[in-house]
Amino acid sequence: MYFLSDQHGSAPGMTKPYHPLLEDQTNMSSGEMKDSKHCHDNSRALEDREREKKLAKKRLYIVSVVCLVFMVGEILGGYFAGSLAVMTDAAHLLVDLTSFIISLCSLWLSSRPATHTLNYGWHRSEILGALLSVFTIWLVTGVLVYLAVERLIHDDFTIEGTVMLITSGCQCSFISEYIGTLLISGHGHSHGGLSGGHSHSHDHRNKNGHSNSNANHYDVEEHGSGKRQQANASVRAAFVHVIGDLLQSVSVLVSALVIFFKPEYKIADPICTFLFSLFVLGTTLTIMRDIIIVLMEGTPAGVNYNEVREQLLRVKGVKAVHNLHIWALTMNQAVLSAHVAIDDTVEPQAVLREMTQTCFTSYSFHSVTIQLEHQADQRADCSLCQDPTK
Length: 390
Description:
Elements: E1 2-4, E2 16-18, H1 30-35, H2 45-81, H3 84-110, H4 125-154, H5 161-178, E3 197-198, E4 202-205, E5 211-214, E6 218-223, H6 233-261, H7 268-295, H8 305-313, E7 318-330, E8 333-342, H9 348-362, E9 365-374
Parallel strand pairs: 8-9
Antiparallel strand pairs: 1-2, 1-3, 4-5, 6-9, 7-8
Helix pairs in contact: 2-3, 2-5, 3-4, 3-6, 4-7, 5-6, 6-7
GO biological process, one term: response to glucose
Pfam families: Cation_efflux (PF01545), ZT_dimer (PF16916)
Domain Cation efflux protein cytoplasmic: 301-374
């Protein structure tokens, strides 16, 4: 239930109940309607989200087509050259192509509307798609390492150095051309839309049946984005794959040069595969770490928990901050919720405006929910109100 406070910020008992969906809202005067601030009036969250997904899809479509062309070329070149390194590069491109398709599917799923069961929508499908992409490349890399070991043990392979050199050289030049397609460019903005207050009853109950009712709370929810945003998870995973392709192609080119001038050093082919496998592990561990943070609802990268808490405490009239939770729906959609105790002498709406504006202008929060409470209603022994240990 929403409450409209008078111009002096009167106490909750002096307010009248209001809900934005009630028909009697149309009886408000034109001046009241003009002064009202709906929570999404100034929000560009949906617009920015659609723009980001459109750009991500465009990038993924382009690299998928280019990846398919490169893959066919490397399969033919590796076959005629008899090079495992070139064939493994082609197999890696096949994994990349599969991961790009998975990413496109996850972007499509994330566009589906929210439901009663999935009330946040399908945004996490991007994270799951990126996770599946990482798993597939680990699997294929493991197979390639196995084949390289077989070659080292049996030493029953021959390599056509000229074909290998031409194929790897073309691959390096082509990848260097299209790698810019996935270069991640950040952008930022802020939203200043403010909603009305929300008053309700909030009880704390312990095992002994004791109840502590905080009867006068104000909730405000806003949507927006801050100055720093992380790249779309699907595009970021694709970018890591393309970087891996480039470095692998460079290593294949180096081994091709060695084999071309010194055919007896054909062992450079499986060794190249080993080195590439180590690189793949290193590059995917970083994105895997960020995926785990999102799935575990941890504080996203670029947001300092204690710093956010201190900024909220600096707002005039704020006495305490607890139940502060910062998590992410995706790598570029951070969410914040907090309970804030304020002095009885300050105007609640003024505090809400300053805190939400601080959150949106300083951090990349997609959604912020702040519940205001009276300082007198705080309980130090409430287990639900304790701060994180570290």
